[in-house]
Specification:
about 0% strand; 12 helices
């Protein structure tokens, strides 16, 4: 593929992308994310695509360093452009597709439109995400789910340039724990150089221990309740059946009253 970079004398420059390899690649196995504005999928989607663009030496198609109009006559360049645009459209939700689709856009324009949906209006997004981040509590969710929510919010803040430090992640994590983890939170001061991930791992183990204790207490209570119950009384022995040919006599009638005594 002829391009302004073909005469680059840099010995570490990557090889030219292969249009056939790009066309035949199954994008869903390389970017297993459906980008949607209703969830926190942008950071993962962009990360997968950045890895893929580096792996296939395709960054020049999205970073704006090359004028696409100058390369319009190159068939390999045009083929790769079509494949990349198809990748973007296949990995976004229908709402995003209808928002950014345009017949005349090149890859750089489509890439920029999609990213601006998640990084534009930075001040409004910053206020909203910070409120959600600092108001995040564990409630009835598991430690894994709670930590995942915090990490997704931190990723969204990072996308708009508001990086969340590990110390702040750790502080928010411990502040939002439910009351069941009160003792565990007080023991965190015993950990050497605690980090968000090390504390999350510790809390997961504590959660498992607490579940086992609760199950053991429940089992013990059931066993104690069963042992306190009175044993059921034995049913009365039934009368043995009469032998064959035996007919019991009817009960004797009551004796008549004695006659009154005559006076002498």
């Amino acid at each position: 593929m002829a391009s302004p970079h073909s005469s680059n004398s840099n010995p570490f420059a990557g090889p030219e992308p292969d249009a056939t390899a790009v066309h035949d690649l199954d994008i869903h196995t390389r970017v297993p994310i459906k980008l949607d504005q209703s969830n926190s999928s942008y950071y993962a989607w962009k990360t997968y695509f950045n890895l893929l663009l580096h792996e296939y030496h395709l960054l020049e198609h999205v970073d704006g360093t090359i004028d696409g109009d100058l390369m319009a006559g190159d068939p390999d360049w045009a083929a790769i452009e079509a494949s990349l645009i198809r990748w973007f459209y296949l990995t976004v939700s229908p709402d995003i597709f209808h928002t950014v689709v345009s017949e005349d856009d090149d890859v750089c324009a489509v890439w920029t439109k999609i990213n601006n949906l998640f990084t534009g209006n930075k001040l409004q997004r910053l206020v909203f995400l910070q409120q959600e981040f600092f108001g995040c509590h564990q409630d009835d969710s598991s430690i894994d789910d709670y930590c995942m929510r915090l990490e997704r919010l931190a990723d969204e803040l990072r996308d708009i340039g508001a990086k969340v430090s590990d110390e702040l992640m750790l502080s928010t994590l411990t502040t939002g724990l439910n009351e069941d983890f009160g003792n565990a939170a007080s023991n965190l001061s015993l950990l050497l150089n605690p980090t968000f991930h090390s504390v999350a791992a510790y809390l997961c183990l504590e959660e498992r221990r607490m579940k086992k204790v609760k199950a053991r207490v429940h089992h013990t209570a059931l066993a104690a309740g069963t042992s306190r119950r009175a044993p059921p009384s034995a049913p009365p022995h039934p009368r043995p059946p009469a032998p064959l040919g035996f007919f019991p006599l009817p009960p004797a009638p009551p004796a008549p009253p004695a006659p009154p005594r005559q006076p002498q």
